[in-house]
């Protein structure tokens, strides 16, 4: 596939540039590339709520991509999902979907406690994997997943979709363009009132059960910000943290504070609390010449402050928030690009969170 693509591009480009000029040649080359891009056929293990809007339709709407099979342990729910989303096949057993010869890539959208299991099964079947975040219960499991995919010769991607969203690419563009000079430090503040579903100890959601989620809502939500900062500023290399359960509604931590240092030398601090009196979601990146302030989850404008004044950038979220990242996976599988969110980058975020959760003091 790679040598054929290169040959087509070289031959087509040479002839069309010579005859019609570079602009028309670019159009022809894009058509040539489209003609040799194969359709990537996806299967979903765990077609629950996250796949209804955020990810599932993105597999159908991305170019050269098609959702062909879904799985859920309750077969009636898998069947219902397939019928509503126009998916030709459904299963109630993960192994059956993974070994379906019509499935090229497996998307694992189950809770983190089964991410490793299904990733290893997919790798053994020779299928590339796109796994939900957080990547696994802990960094050790992430390493096992990376090793299994490497040994099997398949690619491993993680659904940290902010790496492909225009809103967050704008922040990275400002940083890379020295809009705030050299980055000095980062402050993260995320706090929320206790969620209503967390109040009933008899029917707690899996996101606050460490054996299933790897932690509490910190692991579910802080992962997004920490992973984006890894992408925008480079890896975090030193971390210290303190976690506690102050409100006592569930087993997992409900407050975490952390300090960290990036490989670049920039410092960082963060506080995450899920039993506070109100909502706050603010991250600020402060440099030698300015400050960028943004929200990880709310659609507030990105705010750039420098000596010249204040600028705001309003960048909306797409309808299917994972679609841009899904497109990068499809492109890489077709040797036509690179996905920015891999097993290696996803594991780094799990490592950072592990370090912050190591010292729990209730």
Spatial separation of the terminal alpha carbons: 56 Å
Annotated CATH architecture of the largest domain: 2-Layer Sandwich
* Largest sheet: number of strands, sense, barrel closure: 8 strands, mixed
Shape: globular
Kindly state the number of beta strands. 14
Structural class per helix/strand content? alpha/beta
Helical residue percent band: 25-40%
Give the number of helices. 12
Described by its quaternary structure, the protein is single chain
Radius of gyration: 22 Å
* β-strand amount: 15-25%
CATH superfamily of the largest domain: Dihydrodipicolinate Reductase, domain 2
Order of helices and strands: HHEHEHEHEHEHEHEHHEEEEEEEHH
CATH topology of the largest domain: Dihydrodipicolinate Reductase, domain 2
Poorly predicted ranges = 1-31
Strand order of the largest sheet: 8-9-10-7-11-12-13-14
How would you portray this structure in words?
The chain is α/β, with parallel strands linked by helices. It folds into two domains: 38-160, Rossmann fold, CATH 3.40.50.720; 166-317, Dihydrodipicolinate Reductase, domain 2 (2-Layer Sandwich). The chain has helices at residues 2-20, 22-36, 56-61, 75-85, 94-98, 115-124, 139-152, 166-176, 210-213, 217-233, 323-333, 343-357; strands at residues 40-45, 65-71, 89-91, 105-108, 129-131, 156-158, 183-191, 236-244, 255-262, 267-273, 280-287, 290-294, 302-306, 309-313. The strands form two sheets. Strands 8-9-10-7-11-12-13-14 form an eight-stranded mixed β-sheet, with helices on one face. The chain has a six-stranded parallel β-sheet with strand order 3-2-1-4-5-6, with helices on both faces. Mean pLDDT is 92; it is low at 1-31.
């Amino acid at each position: 596939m790679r040598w054929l693509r290169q040959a087509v591009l070289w031959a087509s480009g040479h002839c069309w540039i010579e005859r019609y000029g570079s602009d028309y040649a670019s159009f022809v080359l894009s058509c040539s590339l489209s003609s040799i891009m194969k359709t990537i056929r996806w299967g979903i293990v765990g077609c629950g709520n996250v796949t209804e809007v955020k990810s599932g339709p993105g597999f159908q709407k991305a170019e050269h991509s098609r959702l062909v099979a879904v799985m859920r342990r309750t077969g009636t729910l898998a069947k219902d999902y397939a019928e509503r989303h126009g998916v030709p096949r459904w299963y109630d057993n993960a192994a059956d979907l993974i070994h379906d010869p019509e499935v090229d890539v497996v998307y694992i959208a189950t809770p983190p406690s089964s991410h490793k299991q299904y990733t290893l099964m997919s790798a053994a079947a020779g299928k590339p994997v796109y796994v939900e975040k957080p990547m696994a219960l802990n960094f050790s499991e992430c390493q096992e997943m990376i090793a299994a995919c490497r040994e099997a010769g398949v690619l491993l991607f993680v659904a940290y979709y902010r790496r492909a969203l225009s809103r967050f690419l704008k922040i990275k563009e400002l940083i890379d363009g020295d809009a705030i000079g050299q980055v000095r430090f980062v402050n993260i503040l995320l706090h929320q009132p206790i969620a209503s579903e967390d109040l009933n100890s008899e029917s707690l959601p899996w996101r606050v059960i460490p054996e299933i989620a790897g932690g509490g809502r910190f692991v579910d939500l802080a992962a997004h910000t920490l992973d984006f900062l890894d992408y925008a500023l480079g890896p975090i290399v030193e971390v210290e943290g303190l976690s506690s359960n102050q409100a006592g509604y569930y087993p997992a931590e409900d407050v975490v504070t952390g300090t960290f240092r990036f490989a670049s030398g920039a410092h960082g601090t963060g506080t995450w609390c899920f039993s506070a009196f109100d909502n706050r979601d603010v991250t600020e990146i402060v440099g030698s010449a300015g400050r960028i302030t943004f929200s990880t989850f709310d659609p507030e404008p990105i705010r750039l402050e420098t000596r010249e004044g204040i600028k705001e950038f309003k960048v909306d979220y797409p309808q299917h928030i994972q679609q841009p990242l899904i497109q990068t996976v499809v492109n890489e599988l077709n040797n036509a690009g690179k996905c920015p969110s891999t097993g290696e980058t996803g594991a780094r975020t799990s490592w950072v969170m592990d370090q912050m959760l190591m010292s729990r003091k209730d």
